[in-house]
Specification:
Chain B: It comes from Falsiroseomonas frigidaquae. The complex is a heterotrimer of chains A (495), B (98) and C (373). With 495 residues, chain A is α/β, with parallel strands linked by helices. Chain A has 17 helices and 23 strands. The chains are: A alpha/beta (495), B mainly beta (98), C alpha+beta (373).
């Protein structure tokens, strides 16, 4: 058995981990799945670490299980008792057009190709350190593990930008992304006094998906700053290079507005004793038992920010930090690459393309293909990616993040340590220039979420209080381990 | 709040009360489906909290599971008969041992 | 023109700045930006005398004086920070995990006793259990040294209190730019900063931690200081489990357990954490409290502490630049009370206290790097 055979033989999560690997991919969303599949096509030994229990990432979450369930139901209806969780069943369903939306189709194809690629897939695996020279640490099943990787493609995806309003810590206030996960993984649909509030494509997509599944929504509070279309108009022609994006967005909004009242508003509060009971929309009260918030998504840079030497730049349009990357996805640190939304928000299709492009560059760097081959193969992919990214400036102008200056002082920003916006502004008054001294003075960002949730809000409030652009304010410095692990796990590495 | 679109196939015990659930779904989803939103009381002020993100990032869905405290309910899969309860404040090894 | 300009807004500079401002001086504290290599952020939070000053009685006395002044400082700093600094003088421990460690520590305690430290004594395992009933100590814990006067504090809230106090007393905080040069002018000095700004002051105090050496040269003082990296771990909040602070493990007032700190003397100015060092720290902590094996760590971080060749502090007024001082140490928390009190007073009157003669950096002339503290 050759080395490569030995490697690809182990598909089980319990398979032993080798001491080294050609390519380690973090995340099995569209970028990670596509990168691993492409890298395998060039004979590389590939290990994929995924926090989730199955491939798909957040956008295609539980796509295999939902498709398999659909296939089972179809077969049961035909009287066939046996059903297999197989690639064949997925393809059959795709061919029949039985999958509900485009996203699931894309996700199913990516997942099937990934499963067949021979990449070693480790679900429920949380990466927590990348040390110089490509030494990677992760936790899995309560034990810490380590491996040496020649190249890394980090495809950690996006996280929702927090939308801190007074009362958002009350039980019964969740993010739209959370509700979508409940829908995709557990089939939960909204019912009763359920309100959606904020702005951005995901809010409308979730509303469409929830309504299609028979859910009911009491109303949508549209907090998007007025004048969106006027702001976005200059980017319209470019956006029309990929018109399906805009078309789909318009269809979503029309579908939702037929069924749900949409109220533009400027101020939103959540209130209740021990749990959400009502919302105040520009001062008008409505009964509420679930409020779902959304204000777009930002790149997940928790890991890249902790790697010494990886640079990050401020994106003034999307108002977020993103790692400094070349067209291939190389960071400033040799061997460390980023693909997908964690390098800048581009959506699922652009993410998959960037995953393949990064894998081709990794194959070149490891001598599996020549520079000419990389360029020839990636050329069409880069054109496709450009097309996918064409609507972004339009969307960014339509939905600029809500201004942090407007967050009332009493609003909690850091949920873990219960630090308010007023407290953060007070720290700025004491001379704090950035998120790190503010953290030291207020405890904001010191809790178990390690600043994942509050980071953008704390950063934005500091910038607004200082009256400077976000790029002039240091974000929270992240450090390994970037995910909580037990001291027992850590101590076991002491040998 | 939420309604299930798929049948339940087992029960779990929350604060001594039996709740219907589906094996394999997250404990957080099972609780939300049963109308429960308060999962814990914070160690800072004792305020009630429930899940925000359901993707393992926010640490607001901490509960006790089978005697172990500070477990993220969104990452704990339901198994038939699972026993869980509210996380009161900071984690206590003394209580876990009891 | 300011009366005093302090270069460095960490624990040492902020304490001196607070003390000078409180005494009516017009004070400016100059600082770098948000990610300065600040030892203040890597401090373990001990107010500690039991291991300080072996072979340097002046330092031992200076430390004891600070510990005595700490209760008053804690009260004021809490009021100024708007939050309790969590100073608890409950006594402090240094755990011994086998006979060898216990014997070595006993010898050390005897030596400190001979040099005038009162109260410090060894506790065997039974006495330790009586002191901390219910504390789930690991079977390897043989005993500990115990100094009833020692304690701990939340160093970050202390820093906030000192800076708020400095501002509240009329002081000026100037963060965001490093200092490039110091020039004499009529009646004092002019400080040039990298952002092009200038600050004029009658007196200057350099309290710049690991950056002390190049700044000291600007005022004619040779102060060899090198960076020693210290890594820290903090766990999730836990119900009370360890009532007394110890030299590498303490439970903070917020309930988190802090484990630290490494002492990595490799000359590097990088403040990165390393898994190998964190793992070793965790392993030792589990020998003290095995139950912590189940505790989740939520953060780790590293900071650079300034270390002199003999590990003791350095204080001096420049002979060539009258009115220019240097103050550096790696125990900024323990010494905060003397820095805000007697040292600030001395800087304003222009005469350093008697102890300072022994702590002058002239003692390093011809000395090679020796690490002990």
């Amino acid at each position: 058995m050759s080395v490569a055979d030995e490697w690809t033989a182990g598909q089980e999560a319990t398979a032993p981990v080798a001491e080294s690997v050609d390519l380690l991919v973090l995340g099995a969303g569209p970028a990670g799945m596509a990168a691993a599949t492409e890298a395998r096509a060039h004979g590389m030994r590939v290990l994929v670490l995924d926090e989730n229990g199955a491939p798909g990432g957040q956008v295609h979450r539980a796509v295999e299980a939902r498709l398999a369930k659909g296939a089972v139901e179809a077969r049961l209806a035909k009287g066939a008792v046996e059903a297999r969780l197989a690639k064949g069943a997925v393809e059959a369903r795709l061919a029949k057009g039985a999958v509900s939306d485009d996203q699931d189709k894309d996700g199913a194809k990516l997942a099937a190709a990934f499963r067949a690629s021979g990449a070693q897939y480790r679900p429920n695996a949380t990466l927590w350190a990348v040390e110089p020279g490509g030494k990677v640490f992760w936790s899995e099943g309560g034990a810490a593990r380590t491996i040496q990787a020649e190249r890394l493609i980090l495809a950690a995806g996006a996280t929702e930008r927090p939308l801190p309003i007074p009362g958002w810590t009350l039980p019964g206030v969740m993010s739209v992304g959370a509700a979508q996960i409940a829908l995709k993984t557990a089939g939960l649909v909204p019912e009763g006094n359920v309100w959606l509030a904020g702005q951005g494509p995901l809010l409308w997509l979730y509303a469409v998906q929830a309504l299609a599944k028979g859910g009911r929504i009491a109303g949508i509070i549209d907090l998007s700053p007025p004048g969106g279309f006027a702001r976005a108009r200059p980017y319209l022609m470019r956006a029309l290079k990929a018109p399906e994006y805009l078309w789909r967005g318009l269809v979503w909004q029309r579908q939702v507005k037929r069924a749900v009242q949409v109220t533009p508003a400027r101020e939103l509060r959540a209130e209740g004793e021990g749990r959400l009971e009502r919302i105040l929309v520009d001062g008008v009260a409505h009964a509420a038992d679930l409020l779902l918030l959304h204000d777009g998504v930002v790149p997940n840079t928790q890991v890249t920010r902790a790697i010494a030497g990886v640079t990050h730049g401020w994106d003034p349009v999307q108002r977020c930090w993103r790692p400094g990357l070349d067209v291939w996805g190389n960071t400033a640190v040799a061997g460390v690459m980023v693909a997908g939304d964690s390098g800048g928000i581009g959506g699922a299709r652009a993410a998959a393309l960037s995953g393949r492009i990064a894998a081709l560059e990794a194959a070149r760097a490891l001598g599996r293909i020549t520079t000419d081959e990389r360029d020839a193969r990636s050329g069409p992919l880069r054109l496709l990616r450009d097309r996918q990214l064409a609507p972004r400036p339009f969307l960014d102008a339509m939905f600029p993040p809500l201004p942090e200056a407007a967050i009332p002082d009493e609003t909690i920003l850091c949920r873990c340590e219960e630090v308010t916006a007023g407290r953060v502004r007070q720290a700025v008054g004491l001379g704090c220039l950035g998120a790190n001294q503010t953290k030291a003075f207020t405890r904001a960002g010191m809790g178990p979420c390690q600043g994942r949730i509050c980071g953008p809000a704390v950063h934005g409030v500091i910038a607004a209080a200082r009256g400077v652009e976000g790029g002039e304010v240091e974000p929270f410095r992240t450090r390994f381990p970037t995910k909580p692990l037990t001291l027992g796990e850590l101590a076991a590495l002491a040998g | 709040m939420f309604r299930r679109t798929e049948p339940t196939d087992c029960t779990i015990v929350w604060e001594g009360r039996e709740l219907p659930a589906r094996a394999g779904e997250s404990l957080a989803a099972a609780l939300l489906a049963a109308g429960i939103t308060s999962f814990r009381e914070t160690p800072v002020t004792g305020a009630a909290r429930g899940p925000l993100c359901l993707m393992g990032a926010c640490f607001d869905c901490l509960v006790q599971v089978a005697g172990t405290q500070n477990m993220q309910a969104c990452l704990v899969p339901v198994t038939p008969g699972l026993v869980a309860g509210i996380q009161h404040g900071a984690r206590s090894f003394e209580e876990e041992a009891a | 023109m300011f009366d005093v300009a302090i270069i460095g807004g960490g624990m040492v500079g902020s304490a001196i700045g607070f003390g000078c401002a409180e005494r009516g001086a017009r004070v400016a504290v100059l600082d770098e930006g948000d990610v300065a290599l600040r030892a203040a952020r890597g401090n373990f939070g001990l107010v500690w005398s039991q291991s300080k000053g072996d072979g340097m009685p002046a330092y031992a006395a200076w430390t004891r004086r600070s510990v005595a002044l700490w209760p008053a400082l804690a009260e004021r700093a809490s009021a100024l920070a708007g939050r309790d600094v969590q100073y608890r003088a409950v006594g402090g421990l240094t755990f011994c995990l086998d006979e060898g460690e216990f014997a070595a520590r006993s010898q050390f305690v005897q030596r400190m006793h001979n040099q005038g430290q009162e109260g410090l004594r060894m506790l065997d395992r039974r006495e330790l259990a009586e002191l901390m009933p219910g504390c789930p100590l690991g079977p390897e814990v043989r005993g500990a040294s115990f100094q009833p006067a020692d304690g701990h504090v939340d160093p970050l809230t202390l820093l906030r209190g000192l800076q708020a106090g400095m501002r509240g007393a009329g002081g000026t905080h100037l963060p965001g730019a490093a200092v490039q040069a110091v020039e004499p002018v009529a009646g004092g000095y002019r400080i040039l900063r990298e952002d092009g700004s200038e600050v004029a002051a009658r007196r200057i105090v350099i309290a710049a931690g690991v950056k002390t050496t190049p700044l000291g040269k600007m005022i004619g003082l040779d102060v060899p200081v090198r960076p020693v990296r210290g890594q820290n771990i903090v766990t999730e909040r836990l119900a009370p489990i360890l009532p007394l602070p110890a030299s590498a493990i303490r439970q903070t007032g917020d309930g988190t357990v802090q484990i630290g700190v490494t002492s990595e003397d490799d000359g590097s100015f990088e403040a990165a954490t390393t898994t190998a060092a964190l793992a070793r720290m965790a392993a030792r902590a589990l020998r003290v409290l095995p139950v912590l094996g189940q505790a989740r760590m939520v953060r780790s971080w590293a900071a650079l502490r300034p270390m002199t060749p003999d590990g003791f502090p350095a204080y001096a007024e420049s002979a060539t630049h009258p009115g220019c001082f240097v103050a550096t140490c790696h125990s900024g928390v323990t010494l905060a009370a003397v820095h805000a009190g007697p040292l600030a007073e001395a800087i304003l009157t222009g005469a350093l206290p008697d102890h300072a003669r022994d702590l002058h950096p002239d003692r390093f002339l011809g000395m090679t790097h020796v690490s002990s503290h």
